[in-house]
Amino acid sequence: MSAFKTLDDLGDVTGKVALVRVDLNLPMQDGHVTDETRIRAAAPTILELAAKGAKVLLLAHFGRPKGERSSTMSLSMVVGAVEKVLGKEVMFVPEIAGEVVAQSVGILRPGDIAILENTRFWKGEEKNDPNLVKAIAENGDFYVNDAFSAAHRAHATTEGLAHVLPAYAGRSMQAELEALDKALGAPEKPVAAVVGGAKVSSKLDVLKHLVGQVDHLIIGGGMANTFLAAKGVDVGKSLCEHDLTGTANEILEAADTSGCTVHLPYEVVVSKEFAANPPSLRTCNVHEVAADEMILDVGPLAVEALGDVLKTCRTLVWNGPMGAFETTPFDAATVALAKTAAALTAEGSLISVAGGGDTVAALHHAGVATDFSYISTAGGAFLEWMEGKELPGVAALSV
Fold it and tell me: What residues bind substrate, as annotated (predicted)?
């Protein structure tokens, strides 16, 4: 991983203006923020800069306004929630550049915090317009990126500003990059990856990249059915992308070539209907799935065997559930394997990094979210990192 500057590299910033890119794209209901996770993630960086005497200007997007102002997507709506988490008063500035921002900077005292308006109200944001970048930068002395979740976008506030101002990684960004480096950059071997989810098509690039990076690839969820079908298994009515069995075989062949062992379920939980605790529920060998049944989870013996695989590994990266975990009892495999990973992490034998929306929800459901070494709340950025792609917002911080 390339070297990058962090807040530890800052000199005296008293009275200087910090332009800080954070993720305030928060879930809302009836005008109120329903989940403060992203604010809490950015809080250490914001409060540290404020404590050092900087004037902190927060840059963020909210929704998809497509370059037009919208009262329902104004960041003024999140100010109260940010103040609650930070425990400090926060000014709202209805612009991101120009005289209004300059005047607001003049009003702010060292240690004060302001949120600028939704950056996506300006068409130049998503186009990474050099003129907009210059205009925003004119009101700042240095730039801090603390929004890994937006680092896969080369936008004005996620990438452009890092080229025109001294640039630093915030504490959340720093923690994310260090965790990801431990997971796939320079990991302790052997390395295991758990990849689940509904469709192979959504994670083709992830799978193709991982077989050359890890020692064990555990495939679960609906995508496992496509691989089983590729190996000649009749998966009945299961969710399966039969048109991708050729691609699945190519991935399996690539795994063989690189010495990666691919683990597919040999025991499965099936049902004739997808419903909670259906009467047709049964556990069987994968070769015994009837034509009118669908595979909805990995069986307990197979999960135990996968747990034994994790016990031989030093590093784990996880994205996606093992079964249809939102519906009981098809959460059993995900919960069991997550608890095994958490226990191995707790005893110090495994570095565990997980990410993606469904994955985070599944680990919270299993009650082990706080027991993994690191959990990334980033969606697209985490997936693109797993695909081995360079993230523009991260690359721009490199020194």
Answer: 23-25, 38, 61-64, 120, 153
Residue numbering of the annotated binding site for substrate: 23-25, 38, 61-64, 120, 153
Binding site listing for ATP: 203, 326, 356-359
- Catalytic residue list contains 31: no
Read off the pLDDT of residues 146-192 as tens digits, 9 standing for 90 and up: 999 999 999 999 999 999 999 999 999 999 999 999 998 889 999 99
- Judged by phi (left if over 0) then psi (alpha if -120 to 50, else beta), residue 356 lies in left
Match 């993230």 to its residue by tokens. 391
What are the pLDDT digits (tens) for 253-282? 999 999 999 999 999 999 999 999 999 999
Determine the average pLDDT of the residues in 77-94: 97
Tokens of 285: 């060998």
The reported pLDDT for the residue numbered 1 is 57
Rounded Cα distance between 40 and 329, Å, is 33
Query: What whole-number distance in Å separates Cα of residue 186 and Cα of residue 201?
Result: 28
How many CA atoms are closer than 13 Å to the CA of 348, on its beta-carbon side?
A: 0
Q: Give the number of other Cβ atoms within 10 Å of residue 309's Cβ.
A: 19
* DSSP class of 76: G
Supply angle C-alpha 266, 270, 273, rounded to 5.
160
Residue in the structure block whose two tokens are 């669908």? 294
Catalytic site residue 393? no
Residue 237 known to be catalytic: no
pTM to 2 decimals? 0.89
